[in-house]
Design brief:
The protein is mainly beta and 91 residues long. The chain is built from one helix and six strands. The radius of gyration is 12 Å and the shape is globular.
Length: 91
């Protein structure tokens, strides 16, 4: 398991949906640019992958496997869970 993971969101924000990424690189340089032409924006760093990060549901087993294999994990979230990148976060 990585020491820490870093949460990014695609673009400058969204309402109701969004593409998110967890990365083991704090700069996000390893995130696929083709999946986010608008550019990845850093949200926050965490010590571990839990079942939820910043109000976003995360499949911890899949996320950890992807972080080990590729260094990142992508998540597309619809609805009120897509709250990173805003001041209002769902719990």
């Amino acid at each position: 398991m990585p020491e820490s993971v870093h949460l990014f969101y695609c673009g400058s924000g969204f309402k109701g949906a969004g593409l998110f990424a967890l990365s083991n690189d704090q700069s996000g340089a390893n995130l696929p640019k083709a999946d986010c032409p608008a550019g990845w924006a850093f949200d926050k760093s965490m010590n571990a992958v839990e079942g939820e990060i910043g109000g976003i549901p995360v499949d911890a087993k899949a996320a950890l496997a992807d972080l080990e294999n590729t260094g990142y994990h992508l998540m597309y979230v619809k609805g009120p869970d897509a709250s990173a990148g805003t001041d209002k976060r769902s719990a």
